Amino acid sequence: MIIVTGGAGFIGSNFIHDWLRANHEPVLNLDKLTYAGNLKSLANIEADEALKLRYRFVRGDIGDRTLLATLLAEIKPTAMINFAAESHVDRSIAGADEFIQTNIVSTFNLLEEVRAYFSQLSASEKSAFRFLHISTDEVYGSLSEADAAFTERHQYAPNSPYSASKAASDHLVRAYHHTYGLPTLTTHCSNNYGPYHFPEKLIPLVIQNALHGKPLPVYGDGQNIRDWLYVADHCAAIRAVLANGRVGETYNIGGRNERTNMEVVNTICALLDELKPRPDGQSYITQISFVKDRPGHDRRYAIDASKLESELGWRAHETFETGIRKTVSWYLANQAWVESISSGEYQTWMRAQYENAAS
Ligand code: NAD
Ligand code: DAU
Q1: How far apart are CA 194 and CA 206, in angstroms?
Q2: So what's the architecture of 2-197+229-257+298-319 in CATH?
Q3: d(CA 293, CA 314)
Q4: I want to staple 215 with a disulfide (CB 3.0 to 4.6 A). Which of 2, 272, 289, 319 is the partner?
Q5: Residue 187 CA: which ligand 1 atom is closest?
Q6: Spacing, Cα 75 to ligand 2 middle (Å)
Q7: Residue 111 reports pLDDT greater than 80
Q8: Which of 5, 67, 14 is closest to 194 using CA atoms?
Q9: Active site residue 49
Q10: What lines the ligand 1 site, CB under 6 Å?
Q11: Residue 82: per-residue pLDDT
Q12: Quick one: how far is CA 303 from the chain centroid?
């Protein structure tokens, strides 16, 4: 069995679906169920007699060492994949406490318990075991338009409390490999999008606000660039790194799909105009509203995934055009999921973040 942490979040839940389709090995999902964790994203598994035999959920914090020690001793996992984190840049700017706690302190506690577990494995169990840490491209900082894309050798230069906390956890993971020989792997992926994405992030937020006749908030001049990867491509890359990545190495993951935020928002509007036209015949583009910029807003991210492609033969299958069409269609077909996870806490966050956001 493998353990996935943060498996009720956006990428973690997609990964569990993907893993159960691609592997026979069962998976245990350890998740604290913060505002971003939703078991409804895994409801298909719970409803499937065959799948649920290979899936187990435990509610808990990656910083709870007693729980971790018990689970590790009981499960004897062959791998742990650490998705659990506070992940939203804007929330880290509004208040970073939870980011420091989960992304740094709790990740340290997790590493300590995994180290203790690893130390008592047999030689053959040790050589099979992997700890895969899911990091982000944001630890590399911001690029200008003329800069080459981030490689794995790019200097760390995190700019937000979120990316700084992720960078700290990366350094801990690196140190646990270097000092204690823990067989770690670290991945740095670019911006993901796809099903089960919490509607506080740009793409699902724009889809939802558009459908509800609300403003589509674009920060600053809308010319910031992100490098978008469809989440299923990310999941396939993680499986490839887990299976064949070299221990102690880091791998960038990205599909060479750089787009400005305005291009992203315009594309979503055009798709909605086609798939769910507004009753008044106007384009959703009329709902776009430029708002105050994010403080310290990184201008551009771009990932060079050559190492992953050449060493492990991974390739992204979706272009931005195919992936965003699938995503918009998924949200149109799954409004019940969105409604079910848009709790009071979500409404409070949206009011606090956007009510006085006019630029
Ligand atoms: P998310 O916010 O959607 O989900 C995070 C999950 O972690 C939630 O289910 C939450 O309940 C859980 N969690 C939070 N704190 C926890 C704790 N202390 N103990 C146990 N569980 C806890 O995040 P996501 O977008 O799915 O991102 C997953 C990982 O991928 C994160 O580490 C993030 O930094 C990284 N990442 C995300 C992206 C992206 O575009 N979303 C890109 C690259 C890397
Ligand atoms: O690059 C990987 C990172 O991508 C992950 O590590 C983070 O966990 C993930 O949240 C994401 O971070 P971003 O800050 O890039 O994603 P977000 O969807 O919040 O914003 C994307 C871009 O859109 C960014 O330039 C800010 C802008 N934006 C965002 C929101 C929420 C807007 O213009 N308006 C908005 O309302």
Answers
A1: 13
A2: 3-Layer(aba) Sandwich (3.40)
A3: 36
A4: 289
A5: 44
A6: 36
A7: yes
A8: 14
A9: no
A10: 5-6, 8-12, 31-34, 36-37, 61-63, 83-85, 87, 102, 106, 134, 136, 166, 189, 191-192, 198
A11: 99
A12: 15
The answer to whether 288 touches 213, Cβ cutoff 8 Å, is no
Asked if 110 and 68 touch (Cβ cutoff 8 Å), the reply is yes
pTM: 0.98
Query: Annotated catalytic residue: which of 55, 117, 162, 193?
Result: 162
Question: What is the number of the ligand 2 atom nearest to the C-alpha of 202?
Answer: 18
Q: Please write the tens of the pLDDT for every residue from 314-328.
A: 999 999 999 999 999
Q: Which amino acid is at 110?
A: L
Catalytic residue, chosen from 113, 137, 233, 304, is 137
Q: Contact, 20 vs 27, CB < 8 A? A: yes
Active site residue 137: yes
User: What tokens were used for 35?
Assistant: 């505002």
Amino acid identity of 169? S
Q: What are 260-292's pLDDT values in tens digits?
A: 999 999 999 999 999 999 999 999 999 999 999
- The yes-or-no verdict on residue 112 having pLDDT over 70 is yes
Q: What is the pLDDT of residues 154-194, one digit of tens each?
A: 999 999 999 999 999 999 999 999 999 999 999 999 999 99
The mean pLDDT of 92-98, rounded to a whole number, is 98
Q: Which ligand is nearest to the CA of 7?
A: 1
Spatial distance between the Cα atoms of 26 and 160, rounded to a whole number of angstroms: 36
Residue 106 has pLDDT above 90, yes or no: yes
Identity of the amino acid at 332? L
The residue whose two tokens read 């956007």 is 354
pLDDT at res. 357:
78
Q: How far is the CA of 207 from the centre of ligand 2 (A)?
A: 14
Catalytic residue among 18, 138, 200, 304: 138
Q: Does position 359 have pLDDT exceeding 80, yes or no?
A: no
